[in-house]
């Protein structure tokens, strides 16, 4: 068998993936990699240009809650301050207040992509995956260079077991990522690939993530889980000794 082929397994939910025991086994091998098919005849990807204030607009900047609240209170009609305040509220786990601040600005041209990225994160936290998907799609439509919005879209799609679409969103996020910490989206894409059955590709990505961030406990944990998924089944029955008169061939 070609050792470079991708092992395929039945599709798994991401929640189930992290809860599976060591008893899961392989169902066979695929000798043709999906990447080989995707590479044929694909046009060159033109990457979108990040916004001039990408560190703020894509959520890289982290505001102190008290400071940004004071700015918001001085001018509640300032969309960017409202978006930043809503983000700070979400990061402080004040979801209800964050949503109330953000919703009036979801269609704002200046800050809409940040607003909807934050709303998608709130809906993900609430378990409202349809709304999370809708808000994330709105965010990337407002600014297709918003790598965090693409990541949130991938998370929302994965939560609904739309793994192929989720993979596309995660890959887009990785292609255009300009933030400091790329490891979480690499981890999420790896889990997505494992849920589709591509454990070899998932492990390769996790090993790359581990090199970037060796101390991440969740990366090591996911490597162990996915390696277990890719192991062949163990012989579970009691082994009977060969009769003395018969030598195994």
Walk me through what this model shows.
Among the domains are: 116 residues, Alpha Horseshoe (Serine Threonine Protein Phosphatase 5, Tetratricopeptide repeat); 51 residues, no CATH class. Helix content is 58%, strand content 2%. It contains 13 helices and 2 strands, in the order E-H-E-H-H-H-H-H-H-H-H-H-H-H-H. Helix 7 runs antiparallel to helix 8 and helix 10 packs antiparallel against helix 11. The longest helix has 15 residues. The radius of gyration is 23 Å and the shape is elongated. The two termini are 24 Å apart. The N terminus and C terminus are likely disordered.
Brief rundown of the structure:
The chain is mainly alpha-helical. The protein has helices at 14-19, 34-39, 54-57, 65-74, 79-91, 95-102, 112-126, 129-142, 147-159, 163-176, 183-196, 199-212, 217-230; strands at residues 6-7, 29-30. Helix 8 (129-142) packs antiparallel against helix 9 (147-159) and helix 9 packs antiparallel against helix 10.
């Amino acid at each position: 068998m070609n050792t470079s082929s991708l092992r395929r397994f039945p599709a798994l939910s991401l929640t189930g993936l992290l809860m599976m025991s060591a008893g899961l086994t392989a169902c066979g091998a695929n000798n043709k990699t999906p990447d080989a098919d995707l590479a044929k005849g694909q046009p060159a990807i033109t990457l979108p240009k990040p916004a001039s204030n990408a560190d703020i607009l894509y959520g890289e900047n982290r505001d102190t809650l008290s400071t940004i609240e004071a700015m918001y209170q001085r001018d509640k009609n300032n969309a960017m301050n409202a978006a930043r305040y809503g983000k700070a509220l979400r990061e402080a786990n004040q979801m209800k207040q964050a949503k109330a601040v953000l919703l009036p600005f979801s269609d704002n041209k200046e800050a809409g992509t940040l607003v909807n990225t934050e709303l998608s994160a709130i809906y993900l936290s609430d378990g409202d995956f349809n709304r999370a998907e809708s808000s994330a799609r709105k965010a990337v439509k407002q600014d297709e260079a918003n790598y965090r919005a693409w990541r949130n879209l991938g998370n929302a799609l994965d939560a609904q077991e739309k793994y192929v679409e989720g993979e596309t969103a995660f890959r887009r996020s990785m292609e255009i990522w300009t933030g400091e910490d790329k490891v979480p989206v690499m981890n999420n894409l790896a889990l997505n690939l494992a849920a589709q059955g591509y454990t070899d590709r998932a492990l390769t990505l996790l090993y790359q993530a581990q090199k970037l961030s060796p101390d991440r406990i969740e990366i090591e944990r996911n490597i162990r889980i996915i390696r277990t998924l890719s192991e062949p089944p163990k012989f579970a029955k009691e082994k009977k000794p060969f009769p003395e008169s018969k030598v195994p061939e």
